[in-house]
Amino acid sequence: MESLDQISDHILRVLAQEGRISNLELAERVGLSPSACLRRVQELERRGIITGYRAVTDPVRMGIGFIAYVTVGLSKHTKAAQAEFERLMRTAPQVRECHNVTGTVEYLLRVEARDLAAYKQFHTDYMGAFPYLDRLTTMVVMGSPKDERR
Questions:
Q1: Looking at 51-132, which runs of residues are DSSP E strands?
Q2: Non-local CB neighbours of 108 within 8 Å, separated by 6+ positions
Q3: Which end of the chain is more exposed for a tag (fewer CB within 10 A), N or C?
Q4: Does domain 66-140 sit in CATH 3.30.70.920?
């Protein structure tokens, strides 16, 4: 894969923080003409480096009062069991991220819920119903001094 030059890297860093910035302002910030900047952004999109744009939401205003990271260990270590677990996680609106990881567990989840009671229901009724669940460890987020997704 082709590496990015400093200008393209700068464009990506600005867009990651301010996805709705106008092309004119972006061009000024990265030191390009508007037409050259637009061509760069379009090329980054064409190459699949920029894969989309999204709205960043405030969890509190969205009714999210509980955020946790959950490690998941499976009792059955087959491709089919992992595929079944991943399908289940894709359908769970509380699961905002699901990562297959190395180490003593198979998955790391970011779970967002209305409150502790809602998380408990998800934990018991949703995760507890998965047949190959071996262990869950929940780490409750107390604060996020750095979170570049928000």
A1: 66-74, 95-100, 107-113
A2: 69, 70, 71, 72, 97, 98, 99, 101
A3: N
A4: yes
pLDDT tens-digit map of 76-91: 999 999 999 999 999 9
Amino acid at 68: A
**Which tokens is 83 given?**
């595929």
Query: How many residues are present in the chain?
Result: 150
Q: At what angle do helices 34-46 and 6-17 cross, to 10 degrees?
A: 80
Cβ proximity of 72 and 136 under 8 Å:
yes
Per-residue confidence (pLDDT) for residue 46, from 0 to 100: 96
The interaxial angle of helices 34-46 and 23-30, nearest 10 deg, is: 100
pTM exceeds 0.90 for this model: no
pLDDT value for 148: 83
Domain extents in the chain: 6-46, 66-140
